[in-house]
Amino acid sequence: MEYEQSCVKKYEKFTWKVENFSSLKTNKVYSEPFVLGGYPWRIRMFPKGNNMLTKGNRKANYLSIYLEAMKTANMSEGWNRDVQFKFLLFNQLDAKMTITKETSHKFNAGEDDWGYTHFMTLAELHDPKKGFILKDACIFGVEVLVSKSTHEKPVNLGGSLKFGSQSGVIEDQSPESEMSNQETLSTVSNLVFNETSKKSDAESGYAAMGKVLYFLNTRKVKDLNEQSCKELQVLWDDLAKYKFDITWLEPQVQSALRSRSYVEKSLEVEKLKGNVADLELETERLKAKLAAAEVNLEIERDLLKAEGIKERDLDSELGSGSWKS
After folding, report:
1. N or C: which terminus of the chain carries fewer CB neighbours within 10 A?
2. Could you give the CA distance from residue 213 to residue 144 in angstroms, rounded to a whole number?
3. Please, which residues bridge with residue 28 across strands?
4. What is the pLDDT of residue 269?
């Protein structure tokens, strides 16, 4: 049977932060798997350049990056996906300098990956003044629009697809490592489409899932305030309507929502520190004012003494509240 799907004309987004970039031990690394447009993908990246495509003794002087269509049990012979997609390399110093490259490709069994061998020079990537690597972290993005697929059904996010190692990177060290990666990602092949769901509901569900994942991938704890937490809660409640199994994602969402309390307490601590600093400044101001008043008092006392008023009489008169010349 031939399956055919036309998707909503909207790009869905995934953000991949690669930490400890300079410490990557191998030439080829993978992102965690992710679902966009109803289909599973991952990013394959060569942080030191794709040496397999160099000739002779020439070094790979370019960052190479590719989008890979992951295999699932929903594929049948002759499967293909017509896809438009964009790769982004975020500039962390100036958002206007973010690099975006757009292409299209028909993914199939013979060409299940596509991208850029010469995305950008390694010299520019590692230039600290450029802003693409900050605190040894590099942030990539991909936006995917699946316009059509044949001989393949979309996956059901109610399966056991998991997102992410701690750093968001799966390193490829050897053929054995590649096999291990395939086993780790084999859960994707067990995902099945819920035939009882309407196609439009499924597409809306995938979009809702993408919004939650995009929020979690792009927001930092320091950015979470009351408004952003309300936004996340709305996104989460909207996703819950589609009856996907999202228990694997709930801890991340709840952690983000709880972090609001941390942010509020942190702000309160900073406010109290500011109050203490203000009080310390006020105390110093009052001390200076007191010192000046004491000096003026001594001057007045000396003047009164010069007029023949004895100090003990002065003290006595001040103590009794009366005045005698």
Report:
1. N
2. 14
3. 172
4. 80
Q: 29-38, 92-101, 161-170, 235-244: which range is least confident on average?
A: 161-170
Residue with tokens 């750093």: 167
Distance of CA 162 to the CA centre of its chain: 17
Whole-prediction pTM: 0.52
pLDDT digits 0-9 by tens, 62-120: 999 999 998 877 788 889 999 999 999 999 888 889 999 999 999 999 999 999 999 99
Contact 157, 90 (CB under 8 A): no
| Most confident of the ranges 205-209, 260-264, 291-295, 306-310 | 291-295
Distance of CA 116 to the CA centre of its chain: 24
Torsion of CA 239, 242, 247, 248, to 10 degrees: -70
The residue with tokens 């995934």 is 14
What contacts 24+ positions apart, CB below 8 Å, involve 60-65?
61/121, 61/122, 61/123, 62/117, 62/118, 62/119, 62/120, 62/121, 62/122, 63/89, 63/119, 63/120, 63/121, 63/122, 63/125, 64/115, 64/116, 64/117, 64/118, 64/119, 65/115, 65/116, 65/119, 65/140
Among 238, 150, 164, 161, smallest CA distance to 201 is for: 238
